[in-house]
């Protein structure tokens, strides 16, 4: 008896599920298939649709098959370790993963997709075992999660989904999954941001009318934006094991793509583990919010393959903060300048620290400089910032002997009243002076030089040009709703404004030793710009003695 043929009436992103089905079926008809998806092969004969009209190219078919095989392997490995797991197969389409894999008797498998997809799926697939269910809902809806039991290790699989979501919807989905299921793994494919733009030229997407929206650049950024998420593997599609079984043409395409880094990672598979932990709710705006951007970038640097700063304290703090760092629109490419600035100040601090000294860390934010520099015995260290910042800081960083926190504006006239003024002082400020008015900044420097018998001041400063450029183009400033004010064009001008102050060093970021890590063309461009005084002084470090 011939099985009934099903007519397909899907549009847009939903129609893209037919492409992977076709690719898996064609792979099964090869002499040595990668995936061996017999179910897809059988379904192809039951569906009344001209699959050739999808215009799915050879490279697209190869990607689908390699991707499916690796996700299968990851899922089988997780189920072998956790036979009682809950599996969420998001935007499952017509994928037969639940039938290709042997679902353990104690596991619970859920295939989730839009209602018309699930209706078609239920007609095409045979009645499954008792621990398998389909859920008809958009993965971005909130209610469907209520149907899934919690308290078990959870595996989340998403194939061909993330790029069709908006970034806001994707991040919201990941956060909700971690918060609800608490422990487990997530495996999914992702494209780079430039791939989203290039996708408009895809014949397959043009034919279906679907569009890409979300590209994931640095996969470590998701760890910091979704607390509890931890990257375990990042596999470029062109490096997947099944490639050896593909046709010579496909292998040649993969070899070509692997020769160019942007192409090599254009499409890749990401595997994360997750463990939800209690977080600190943070609501800061304006200049105070920019400290979260700095913290985030230092944490991103720490997650990189070769960190410049290696601030594990920032990394740990970000994991404990309930805040969407994505609002700053910053990523790994922005982390270098923050790490270089912090490194420069750390080196200066470590050089000058002496027993019997007082350290004022002005506008400290959530900086872990005390922990990074580890002052010697006899140093009294004061971290100073607004009361709400200090309150958060006390919750995130453990107390240490000789380490004090003061909740106050640095411009308060009585700021130094409770700090003994009989010791030499080392005053450090990172990312502070440009947020002050010139009047407040000069007044702060005068109070320090009048209160202490002597010491040094170490801080970064922008020129007037640097202030104007940052107010327009610096993502942290713009997206936090902050505004910079004070530009120091001639650092020697402070000597006349603050009696006793003497400039010791003016150091530009164009001289940072960490620039040796950058490609030669970038180093050459930065070196050339460093010879232009106006550019050189846009952002630099200043060191004074009094």
Structure described in brief:
This protein is of the alpha/beta class and 546 residues long. Helix content is 40%, strand content 18%.
Walk me through what this model shows.
With 546 residues, the protein is of the alpha/beta class. It contains 23 helices and 18 strands. The strands form four sheets. Strands 5-4-3-6-7-9-8 form a seven-stranded mixed beta sheet, sandwiched between helices. A seven-stranded mixed beta sheet has the order 14-13-12-15-16-18-17, sandwiched between helices. Strands 1-2 form a two-stranded parallel ribbon. The termini are far apart. 42% of the residues are buried.
Keywords:
single chain, 546 residues, alpha/beta, seven-stranded mixed sheet, 18% strand
Contiguous uncertain segments of 5+ residues: none
- What share of residues is helical? 40-55%
Gyration radius, rounded: 28 Å
What oligomeric state do these chains adopt? single chain
- Mean of the pLDDT scores? 90
Distance between the first and last residues' Cα: 97 Å
Shape call: elongated
Strand content: 15-25%
Look at the helices and sheets and give the structural class. Answer: alpha/beta
- How many H/I helical runs? 23
Biggest pleated sheet: 7 strands, mixed
- Placed side by side, the strands forming the largest sheet appear as 5-4-3-6-7-9-8
Number of strands: 18
